[in-house]
Amino acid sequence: MSKGASTKRAVQDVEEFLRDLKHGRKGEIEAVREIILSVDRDLTERIKWNAPSYCVDGDDRITFKLQPKECVQLVFHRGAKKRDDTISFRFEDNTGLLEWVAGDRALVTFRDLDDVKAKRAGLKELVARWVDATRSGSGEG
User: Fold this and answer.
1) Is residue 99 part of a domain?
2) What CATH number is associated with residue 109?
3) Going residue by residue through the chain (141 aa), what tens digit of pLDDT does each one get?
């Protein structure tokens, strides 16, 4: 299967997943998804860990966290494996949206659709910078 065909199938899988998803914050999930996909044409999406996940060069970098259901969260990470190289990887969050939960991963939380709208510009900037930082693997200072 070609890369284009596999990407098309992954998008169909995400759309199927979202169509069938029973979640009180489905509108917020769809709005955040649209923001993420608008940032970088090279991002691909798939279902990973029972949620939409966004990949750079085939590696997961941003994944929805759909539990607990009273909010929607995004996990900004550098892959499935915990990485302990926080000295060489630094990321400056100019937006103030990230809540660091470990040296290699952070969360952004959305309480409702108004919160998504309020954080839209910061989220776009954050996604673009995170993709760049994790694509190169070097991080920012």
Assistant:
1) yes
2) 3.90.1150.200
3) 445 545 555 667 899 999 999 999 999 999 999 999 999 888 999 999 899 999 988 889 999 999 988 999 999 998 655 555 554 567 889 999 999 998 788 999 999 999 999 999 999 999 999 998 887 554 443
Q: Per residue, what are the HEC states of the chain?
A: CCHHHHHHHHHHHHHHHHHHCCCCCHHHHHHHHHHHHHHCCCCEEEEECCEEEEEECCEEEEEEECCCCCCEEEEECCCCCCCCCCCCCCCCCCCCCCEEEECCEEEEEECCHHHHHHHHHHHHHHHHHHHHHHHHCCCCC
Give the predicted TM-score (pTM) of the model: 0.83
Counted domains in the chain = 1
